[in-house]
Amino acid sequence: MPMKGSGRTSLREIDRFDGGVGWLAYPDERMERASHALVEDGGVWLVDPVKARGLDDLLSDLGTVRGVVVLLDRHLRDAAALAREYGVAVHRPSWMSSVDDDLDAPVDDLEDTLDETGYGVHKLLDRPPVWREAYLYNEETGTLVVPEALGTSTYFRTGVERIGVHPMLRPFPPTDLLDLDVERVLVGHGEGVHDDATRAVRDAVRNSRRRTPALYLKTLREFVLG
Description:
Shape: globular
Protein name: MBL fold metallo-hydrolase
Strand order of the largest sheet: 1-2-3-4-5-6-7
Organism: Halomarina ordinaria
Mean pLDDT: 95
Number of helices: 4
CATH class: Alpha Beta
CATH topology: Metallo-beta-lactamase, Chain A
CATH superfamily: Ribonuclease Z/Hydroxyacylglutathione hydrolase-like
Order of helices and strands: EEEEHEHEEEEEEEEHH
Low-confidence stretches: none
InterPro entries: RibonucZ/Hydroxyglut_hydro
Largest sheet: 7 strands, mixed
Helix content: 10-25%
């Protein structure tokens, strides 16, 4: 199983709910790069997307694509290509303008909210040049979108976790997320969590440091020892 897929895609739908849908372009890769389409009043916003054959069909009944969103400075993925394809701009937080030179598409600022979708745009990490990350949170629906700090791919999680903190952030987990009431979590790596999500997030963050040795040992066994 490759760490990162390439070549021919094989779209697999994930995370469908009333407010959107997600997909994996390369379901067999270890990274499990997950993309999402958030829907509000006939408008569709693509979040950290990877192109895949069949994407037009997946989006066809959702509405009109209004923009592409980048929430992590190293998650440019296919944002520019899809923005050009749909004739829209790439939207990123105003404090993440360092990515602009790498985006061959129109670029707009994201301020405090994502248009009129109900999603607030929140700064999670701002550690240039290593890590700049934002998250989206819709208080009304309880939907949380975290591109990298949390994930469900196997290398994010110990055996007892439903969702895990990124291995590099384990010593200093994203405690800002502890106060949120969450119905579902959509992540940039792996399928989302759609039940008992608040407990899953709080368990992951609160126990991140304590479980770090177990995660590192599990990763060693999986990636090095096979």
